[in-house]
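Review session, final week

We close the course with one last complete record, chosen because it touches almost every idea we covered. It is NADH dehydrogenase [ubiquinone] 1 alpha subcomplex assembly factor 4, a protein from Trogon melanurus with 170 residues. Go through it on your own first, then we will talk.
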Amino acid sequence: MGGRLTRVFRTFNIESRARREISKEKPTAAPRHRTARLDELADHREIQEEIYRKDARLHTLLKDVYVESRDPPVRVEDRGGEHLPSKLEEKRLTKLGHLGDLDVKRVSKGKISIVEALTLLNNHKLHPQIWTAEKIAVEYSLEQKDVNSLLEFFIPFTVQEFPKETKKAI
């Protein structure tokens, strides 16, 4: 409904508005800046001849000028390869989660993805005898001290549901 109403106002008296716009006096263009110097040079033959004439005195002065250029000796400093990577990072395939294309496929050795971190924390919580710190370190290519810190300071959440009759008691 709104589109029809706006179309009516847009097309109302369109011919007379178009004629009025066309019949308006066109604005004059801004004046151009005079290039007086170039015009003067083109008109005067003496100036043109002076420009292209070879001056013998200036030519002899120019012959006396001699420029010597020497580059400083190049010193190559060997800093023991600190700018070059000493070794390429080794990558390992991740234990893929259930997100498909969104999962990280390759991770550097010594690091884990978030899906792997949650999985190993959950496995350790459910079966601490099977998933020990040593086994996790070997399985995910991590250092032992990092795995111990991870298992000590990061604990996955536990969801607890209370039965209906105990909710009232709480």
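Two points worth writing down before the exam:
Residues 46 and 52 are 10 Å apart (CA to CA).
Strands lie at 91-93, 106-108.
Good luck, everyone.
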